[in-house]
Every structure is written in structure tokens, then in C-alpha cells.
Known about the structure:
The complex is a heterodimer of chains A (about 290) and B (about 200). Chain A is mainly α and about 290 residues long. Chain A is built from 12 helices and 10 strands. Chain B is an all-alpha fold and about 200 residues long. Chain B is about 45% helix and about 0% strand. In chain B, helix 5 (about 95-100) crosses helix 9 and helix 8 crosses helix 9. The longest helix of chain B has 21 residues, at about 1-20. Classes of the chains: A mainly alpha (about 290), B mainly alpha (about 200). At the A-B interface, helix 8, strand 4, helix 11, strand 8 and helix 12 of A face helix 2, strand 1, helix 3 and helix 6 of B. Strand 8 (about 255) of chain A pairs antiparallel with strand 1 (about 40) of chain B, so a sheet runs across the interface.
Amino acid sequence: MKQRLGMLLAAAALTASFAVHAQQPAKKAPPPAKAAAPANKSEVSKEFEKFREVLEEDNPAELFEAKGEDIWKNKKGPNGASMAQCDLGLGAGVVKGAYVHMPRYFADVGQVMDAERRVVHCMIKYLGYDEADIRKQPFSNVNKTPDHVSVITYVAAQSRNMKIAAPQRHPKEIEAYNIGKEIFAYRAGPYDFSCASCHGEDGKRIRTQDLPNLRKPGEAIRAYQGWPGYRMTGGFMLTQQWRMNDCFRQQRFPEPNYLSDSITALLAYMTVTANGQTYKGPGIKR
Amino acid sequence: MNRKIIAGLAATLACSAVLADDIRNYRAEAVAMMKRDFKAKGIATTDRLHEDGVQAICNRSGDNPPKDVAARLEKDQLEAIKYPADGKLMGDWKAGEKLAQSGRGMTWSDKAGVPGGGNCYNCHQISPTEMSFGTIGPSLYQFGKTRGNTPDMQKYVYGKIWNAKAFNLCSAMPRFGHVNALNEQQIKNLVALLLDPQSPVNSK
């Protein structure tokens, strides 16, 4: 027990020193992830990044943000309840900064939830959304961006420019992190892939796509940054849950259930690794 | 005397009980959780979540198994490689290049019975004309130029594509022949892409 406490304290000290370190660079300093990018990074990829920076100043994600805000503030459920009752971890109805403090333990449900899971939970509980309907189409496509995706976009935007600070206090939060870390490393399936097959080393690429090493604090931010993201080809919003789903597809795994413990654990691992970094808000994708 | 031993044993047991509670097997918990949370979709069935022997050793050793264990398992994998009955190991490099470009195969959005792609450019530099290549694996440009295409070299390349784990147990590379992701003719074509003197891989 003492040993464990010591390790926790050491981890906390490490996180704290990292957070201090993260505050030091000047505002416009490039993130460490970019510094680690391979020298022979393709021109196309560089050009796209420039393009993306310009677009992010005026990101169509704001349209979904506005729709989500409207649902959050004005929609009433069948029992007259609204999202004002929804506690995202910082108190009932508090949205500001909540996104970067999840995944976290929620006593009312006795489990750890990531942001998307919590938002959906509230929309079912307070606004009377039908869980089966949400599960029928959890992710956006060309025809439809579901309401919960807009609400998540709004909630995420309310943490823009805030430091990621997923808590590791409750035993269930520590458990989620540790299980997520194992899921990240677990090789299986016909191609023997794990998350780490693509995201466990520095400076690697698939084709021209740079791969962040998500085990490292300075790079784990890249799994978090830009989500939810506006996808230009199609014009809809995609969330972190979608990204995890598509990673497992490419990993040649079966499909994870939407909002499952496994995905929450994986997000807990990656978010805690990114703790101390600044979230820039909903992003934009090709 | 007996009492002392019993007392000692009891203390040890109590100690290990505390340890068992404290140091949890998160890997086992993670696997159990995934088996609860993942469902079959298309060709991606849930049996894919089970580790085979090689995966189990690599997962438990952080891809760094004890040398003797690795050597034993590599030998098993090597012995299971099926070489073509006609003895010919080199196919058509042009078909190989096409195959190397394709990243399809084995996902839940791929159809059953449709042959997958080689996924080669995802991770390797190969032909000098293809600039969009990954860097997870080593560059294969000039592969045959520097190594020649002797029968032994052909056999090695065929075997490596069929089952990379026969040569490096926890290699990042999939076991394309071993898991039926690529068939015999496809692998022959990829061997030709790397070893045929006419292949752009070996140009100049």
C-alpha cells in the first residue's frame, strides 16, 4: 500500500512538474509533437496543416456548437427537466471547463464516464432522448449529425483554451486509467495490432499521415486535440468516440459498443497522459 | 516448532492477500472488459479478441520476450510456413506493386471472400515513384539490388511475408499468409516486387 501511495505521489509530482513546464513556452511556440515530426514529412501534409490553421479561425463546427447550445439551454424534456440539472462534474448545469475534466467518476451512477458518455446520459435522463435511437445512429454521417453530437460540440467548445485536467483521485478513475493503458497495448486480431502498433513510437507515419506517440504527454494531446472535429468531406461533426471506433476497425478488431467501459478506459488513459496540455476546442478534419 | 511454521505461513498468506488486493492484474481486467464490450461486425468476429500463443507472449512481455522462449516459438512459426507446391516463389512484380498499394482487408467494412491488399506502403518505402509511404517498417527500396535474388533470398522473403513472426517473434508486421490475409499467388507477386531485377524497387 505504501509503495502504491509513493508511486501515486511520484506520478502526481511528475504531472505537476509537467503542467508547470507546459506553461513556460511562449504562446506561439510550436507544440512538441510538431518538433518530433519526421523531416521528410510530405508537402501535402504541411500544406493541409496550414490550410487547417486558417480554417480553424472560422470553423463550421461553430454551427453545431450553436445548435448544441440551444438544446442545452432551451430544450425541456417530457418531465419539464432540462440540461440545467445535468452535472458534468463541476456542479449541476456547469458547462464551462467541464469537458477537460473528464473522464471522471460520477457518484450518481457509480462509474467513470467520458464527456460524450456523460452528455448522452444526461440527454436520456433529463431530456427524455431514447437510448435505443441514439445507439441506432451514434455517429454523424452525410445525412445527419445527431443532436447529442451537437451538444458534445457545445460542451467541448466551452473548454476552449483550458488545460486538460482529467482527475486521478477516485479509485475508479485510477482503475480506468490502468485498464485503458492495458487496452492500448493489447495485441490481438488477424494482424496482431494494438493501439500501440501505430501510436507507440516517435516520429512514425502511415503513408503520409503522421502518427503521434500517444504514450507521451507532449503527443497524447494530439489524440485529444481537434475532437470533436468538423469533417470537410461530408460536412458533419465526428467525436472522440467515433475516432476510437474507427481505430478499432483499422486495428481489425470487432466493434466496440458505443459508450462502453472499454472506450471510457482508453480515453481516460489518453486524456490523463495529455493532462496539463491546452485544449484548443473543436477542430477540423479532412 | 510447528506452531512457528504455521504462524509464519499465516503471516505470508496474509501478506500475499494484501498484495493480491493491492497489485491488480489490470491486463486481465482489460481483456475481460473488452470481451464484454466488443461485438461482432461483418467479418470481424469476437474470437479476434482472444490472444494466440505468440500474441500472448508478446503482450505479457511488452514485445520483449525471453530469448529462449522467442527462439522456440519462432521455430514453431517457421515450421508452419507453407511454401508453394510448384517451388516457384517469384510472381509478377506489376501485380505485386498494385497489391502493395492496397490497404484493404480484414476490417469489418471488408467483404468476406474478397482478397485483401498487401498494406505494404502503409508502413514501408518500396518503389521510388511512390512518395506516399509509411515509416513503421524499414525502407525496402533497392531490396533485391543489395541482396540479390538467390533461391535462399526468395525463400526468406516469401517466408517473411507469409509469417514475419517466424523471424522476429513480436514484429509489428502482420502474418499475412499464416492468417490467410494473402494467398500464395499474392505473396509470390510481392516477392517479385522486392526481388525481380525488372521491378522499380531495384532500378538504377
